[in-house]
C-alpha cells in the first residue's frame, strides 16, 4: 500500500513539473514575442497612454496700412472642448452653457453624446463669455470640460477696407482678400505639441498653456492710407442713402506709382462676423465686377485719335443729334443737337455722335490696339483674388456698329481697377503702371523680405498727347459735365460716364437701369491722386455728372487737406484754433444759434461711431490713426460753423 501511494505521489509531482515546465515555455515564448516581434507596436501603445498631441497654429502676422496702423491682428483666445466619456449628464451642461455659447441645445447635446475622448464644443470664444463659462464650470463642478488657447483674427476697424483685407476661417485659413492671397506668408507655422495624459488617457491640457509658439507669420504693410480709406467709405455710405444704388465702388490711386490708397465697395460686411453675410456682400466689386464704362471710356478713344493724328483739338464738327451706323441710330445722351462745335465742346458735353465719327476714323484694329495698350481686356495682376479680365472684341469680328458703340464706351466690359489704371496713365505722362497694394512684407525681426515697387507696363501714348488730353479733361471739370467735382482753389481733370446697364444674362440692356461714374485726377499741375466713383443702378437721377461727380469732389477735397496740398486760392473762412478734447465724460447740452452747430464728444468711440456722430451734427471728420478715439481737435460743446472739420485721433484698443 505504501509503495502504491509513493508511485501515485511521484506521478503527480511529475505531472506538476511537466505542467510547470510547459507554462514556463509558454511564458518565455510570449515574452519573446512581445520583446522581439510585437515590441514596437506595444511601445507605441504605452506611449499613447501617457502622451497626446495637438496641432497648434502660431499667430498670423499683422496687416498694417502704409503708416503702420493696424488693420488685422491676431490675439490669443480660448476654445471650449469636452471629453464625452467623462460627462455623466449632458443635459445639465447643455442647460447651463448653450445660452451663453448661442448654440442650439439639440446640437450641443448631440456633440456631448457622440462618444470618444475629445470633441470641440465651440471655437474662438470671446473673453467675456470665456470668464462666465469658467465660473460656471467651477461652481457646478462640471467634469470633462476644458479650454485650449488658439489664435483668433480681429479687425479693429470693423468693416473698414473689408474687401481688401478679407477674412479668416475657424482653422486659421485665409478665405478672401489679402488673408487668402497671402495666406502662406502671414499664416505662420503649424506646430505639433505633445500633451501629458493620465492613466485613463484623459488629456492634462493645462500643460499646453505653458507652450510658447516659436514663431508667428510675417507682417504685411499695405499701400492703403487708413485716413483716405475712411474718407472714401464715409462718402460711400452717404451715397448709398442718397442715391440708393444696387452697388458702388470707389478707388483712389497714386498715378505716379500705381499704389492703391483706398479701395471700397458697397454692399460691404464686417470681417469679424463674415459668416453673417452673403457672398454678394463679400464680393470685391473693384476687381471682380465687369461693367460697360460709358463715356468715361471716351478719354481712351480721344487719346488714341490724338496720338494717331486722326483728331486735332482745334477741329470743329457738325452734330445733327444722331448718327446712323449699319442701320443703327445712335443719339446723344441729352437727345439734343449741338450743331457746329469744337472738339473742346465735344469732350465737355460728351457728344456721342462726334465720338462715333472719331471711332470710325480710327477703325476696329486701332480701337482695340489702344484699348489693350491702356490695359483693357487683361487682368492688371494686382495682389487680390478674383480679378476679372473684362471683355473686348476681336477686331476681325467687329462690324461698323460695334466700332460705333465701343467709341462711346458700350458693348465692351471693364473692371473699375482697369479703368482707373488707364486714366492714371494719362495723368502719368502716358505711362501705364501696374497697380499694387502690398507696400512691404516684413519678417518677425523687422527686416524687409519683399517690397512693392513701381512697375511700368508700357508707354500707352506720348507725354505730349497725355498733356494735351489732360487739358481737355480739365475743361470737363471746370465747365462741362464734371463741374460738380470741382473744388475752389484746385485744378482737377476728369470725365463723367452714364451707361445703360446690361441684363444679368447678358442678352440686352435693362430699361431704366444705368451705371453712373466719374473718373479723374489732380491737382493737374502735379497729379497726386486719381479717383474713380461707380454707382451701379442708382434710384432717381442716374447721370454721372449729377451723382458721381459730387462724390468724387467731396472725397478729393478731403484728401487734398489730408495730404497737405493747399489750394491756390486761400480759404475764405479760417479753421478754428485747435483745442484738444481728451475726456469722454458727458457735457451739458448747449443749444446752437441758427446756422451754427455744437461739436459732439466722440472720445471713446470707434472710427465709424465718431464719423456718424460728427456727420449727423453737420460736421466733417478727419481721422488720424485707427482704433478708439482718444482726443479731438475741437472740444465738445464748442459752437462752430456747419461743415467745420474736426481732427479725431485714434489709438489701438
UniProtKB/TrEMBL annotation:
Tree of life domain: Bacteria
Gene3D superfamilies from the UniProt entry: 1.10.150.770, 3.30.10.20, 3.30.450.330, DD-peptidase/beta-lactamase superfamily (3.40.710.10), Penicillin-binding protein 2a (Domain 2) (3.90.1310.10)
4Fe-4S in keyword set: no
Sorted UniProt keywords: Membrane, Transmembrane, Transmembrane helix
Annotated transmembrane regions: 12-33
Matching InterPro entries: Beta-lactam/transpept, Beta-lactam/transpept-like, PASTA_dom, PBP_dimer, PBP_dimer_sf, PCN-bd_Tpept
CDD domains: PASTA_Pbp2x-like_2
Keyword Cell membrane attributed: no
Every PASTA domain range: 592-652
Entry protein name: PASTA domain-containing protein
Species of the source: Pelosinus baikalensis
Organism phylogeny: Bacteria, Bacillati, Bacillota, Negativicutes, Selenomonadales
Amino acid at each position: 500500500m505504501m509503495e502504491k501511494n509513493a508511485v501515485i505521489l511521484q506521478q503527480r509531482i511529475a505531472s506538476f513539473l511537466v505542467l510547470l515546465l510547459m507554462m514556463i515555455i509558454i511564458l518565455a515564448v510570449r515574452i519573446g514575442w512581445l520583446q522581439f516581434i510585437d515590441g514596437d507596436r506595444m511601445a507605441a501603445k504605452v506611449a499613447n497612454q501617457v502622451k497626446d498631441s495637438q496641432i497648434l497654429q502660431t499667430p498670423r502676422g499683422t496687416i498694417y496700412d502704409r503708416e503702420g496702423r493696424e488693420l488685422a491682428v491676431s490675439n490669443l483666445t480660448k476654445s471650449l472642448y469636452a471629453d464625452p466619456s467623462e460627462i455623466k449628464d449632458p443635459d445639465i451642461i447643455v442647460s447651463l452653457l448653450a445660452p451663453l455659447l448661442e448654440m442650439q441645445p439639440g446640437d450641443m447635446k448631440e456633440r456631448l453624446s457622440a462618444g470618444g475622448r475629445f470633441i470641440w464644443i465651440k471655437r474662438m470664444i470671446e473673453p467675456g463669455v470665456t470668464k462666465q463659462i469658467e465660473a460656471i464650470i467651477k461652481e457646478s463642478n462640471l467634469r470633462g470640460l476644458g479650454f485650449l488657447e488658439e489664435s483668433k483674427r480681429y479687425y479693429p476697424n470693423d468693416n473698414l477696407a473689408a474687401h481688401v483685407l478679407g477674412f479668416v476661417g475657424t482653422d486659421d485659413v485665409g478665405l478672401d482678400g489679402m488673408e487668402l492671397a497671402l495666406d502662406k506668408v502671414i499664416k505662420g507655422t503649424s506646430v505639433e505639441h505633445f500633451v501629458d495624459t493620465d492613466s485613463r488617457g484623459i488629456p492634462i491640457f493645462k500643460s499646453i498653456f505653458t507652450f510658447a509658439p516659436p514663431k508667428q507669420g510675417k507682417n504685411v504693410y499695405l499701400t492703403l492710407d487708413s485716413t483716405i480709406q475712411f474718407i472714401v467709405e464715409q462718402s460711400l455710405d452717404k451715397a448709398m442713402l442718397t442715391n440708393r444704388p444696387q452697388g458702388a465702388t470707389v478707388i483712389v490711386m497714386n498715378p505716379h506709382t500705381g499704389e492703391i490708397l483706398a479701395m471700397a465697395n458697397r454692399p460691404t460686411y464686417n470681417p469679424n462676423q463674415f459668416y453673417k453675410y452673403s457672398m454678394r456682400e463679400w464680393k470685391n466689386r473693384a476687381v471682380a465686377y465687369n461693367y460697360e464704362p460709358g463715356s468715361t471710356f471716351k478719354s481712351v478713344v480721344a487719346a488714341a485719335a490724338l496720338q494717331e493724328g486722326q483728331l486735332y483739338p482745334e477741329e470743329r464738327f457738325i452734330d445733327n443729334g444722331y448718327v446712323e451706323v449699319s442701320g443703327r441710330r445712335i443719339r446723344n445722351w441729352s437727345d439734343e443737337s449741338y450743331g457746329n462745335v469744337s472738339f473742346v465742346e465735344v469732350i465737355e458735353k460728351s457728344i456721342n455722335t462726334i465720338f462715333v465719327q472719331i471711332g470710325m476714323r480710327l477703325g476696329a484694329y486701332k480701337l482695340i490696339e489702344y484699348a489693350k495698350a491702356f490695359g483693357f481686356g487683361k487682368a492688371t495682376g494686382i495682389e487680390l483674388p478674383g480679378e476679372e479680365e473684362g471683355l473686348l472684341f476681336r477686331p476681325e469680328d467687329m462690324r461698323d456698329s460695334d466700332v460705333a458703340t465701343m467709341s462711346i464706351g458700350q458693348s465692351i466690359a471693364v473692371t473699375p481697377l482697369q479703368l482707373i489704371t488707364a486714366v492714371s496713365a494719362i495723368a502719368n505722362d502716358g505711362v501705364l503702371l501696374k497697380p499694387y497694394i502690398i507696400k512691404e512684407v516684413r519678417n518677425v525681426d523687422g527686416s524687409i523680405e519683399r517690397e512693392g515697387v513701381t512697375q511700368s507696363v508700357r508707354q500707352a501714348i506720348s507725354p505730349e498727347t497725355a498733356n494735351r488730353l489732360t487739358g481737355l479733361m480739365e475743361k470737363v471739370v471746370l465747365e462741362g459735365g464734371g463741374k460738380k467735382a470741382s473744388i475752389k482753389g484746385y485744378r482737377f481733370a476728369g470725365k463723367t460716364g452714364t451707361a445703360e446697364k446690361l441684363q444679368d444674362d447678358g442678352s440686352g440692356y435693362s430699361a431704366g437701369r444705368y451705371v453712373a461714374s466719374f473718373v479723374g485726377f489732380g491737382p493737374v499741375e502735379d497729379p497726386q491722386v486719381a479717383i474713380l466713383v461707380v454707382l451701379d443702378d442708382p434710384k432717381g437721377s442716374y447721370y454721372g455728372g449729377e451723382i458721381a461727380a459730387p462724390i468724387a469732389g467731396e472725397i478729393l477735397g478731403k484728401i487734398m487737406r489730408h495730404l497737405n496740398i493747399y489750394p491756390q486760392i486761400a480759404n475764405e473762412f479760417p479753421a478754428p484754433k485747435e483745442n484738444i478734447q481728451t475726456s469722454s465724460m458727458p457735457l451739458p447740452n448747449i443749444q446752437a444759434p441758427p446756422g451754427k452747430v455744437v461739436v459732439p464728444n466722440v472720445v471713446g468711440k470707434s472710427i465709424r461711431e465718431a464719423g456718424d456722430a460728427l456727420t449727423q451734427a453737420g460736421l466733417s471728420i478727419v481721422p488720424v490713426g485707427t482704433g478708439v478715439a482718444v482726443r479731438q481737435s475741437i472740444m465738445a460743446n464748442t459752437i462752430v460753423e456747419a461743415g467745420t472739420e474736426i481732427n479725431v485721433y485714434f489709438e489701438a484698443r
